[in-house]
Amino acid sequence: MKRSTLIALKTLVWIGSLCPLASLVWGAINNSLGPDPTAEIADVSGLTTLWMLAITLAISPVRRLSPRLAWLIRFRRLIGLFVFFYGTLHMLIWVALYNNFSIQAMLDDVTKRRFIMAGMATWLLLLPLALTSTNWAIRKLGGKNWNRLHMLIYPAALCAMIHYWWKVKTGVLSPAPFTLVLFVLLLARPVWVWVERRQKARAVGA
Fold first, then answer.
1. In principle, which of 63, 66, 173, 198 could form an S-S bond with 72, CB 3.0–4.6 Å?
2. pLDDT tens digits along 124-138
3. pTM of the entire structure?
């Protein structure tokens, strides 16, 4: 891929990733976030985190479908950092606007509402991934250790799904589309490993 093309695509990824934030800022300026602006910001930041997490998980299986899509891997780190950015924004809304930075209020909230606990678990699992997203971290940890650490994205995605389901009222099915997409993406990895093993076994037996 040409450097100019890569820069153009990364620019588009930056613009697309910042669109939800720009929408929230514009809504705040124009007072158009609805009757409960805090809830609107929390919902948008949370949903953006979920779907960008799904996009990050989708990059590896999609690029394996065709060698022509190998260039997608160059965007996984960037999108992953935006996942952490929006996840942190989502958490800060809870810390600042819902609990007014009160440690006691946050502790009470975590112990009383299970969806808060699942959300905190998601953020804590994403934290080491964001901290080790640099080339320096890859060199220090080594490729294998770095890959093992970044497998945390899978339990993080599961915790995010649980957080979403526990947050909505009983009977509300809004988390279903994300759950279906996540199930397919989580299933893709073992299926692909199985296919590769079958192909190697056939090659050896040929």
1. 63
2. 999 999 999 999 999
3. 0.91
